[in-house]
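[User]
Um, tokens okay?
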Amino acid sequence: MRSYSASTLAYLASGQIIARNLVWFTARNRTTGVAETLGLWNGQDHVIITIDGVNRTYYGAGGLLQIPDINAKVGLS
């Protein structure tokens, strides 16, 4: 279990948290064969986020990037 500071716990309990979706694409350029990347998120402007020690630039897609909730179900449907 994680332990949080009192200020972090108060913020989590306030209900002011906004969910953000980040999508990172890596694709091969068919002309050059080089891998190219693109990051999108559901914010309004670009932001640089460090993931595993690497800075990644995510460009704001605003309301265009909507990821539906994941529904867990039993069975093969």
About this structure: Residues 6-14 form the longest helix (9 residues). The first strand starts at residue 22 and ends at 28.
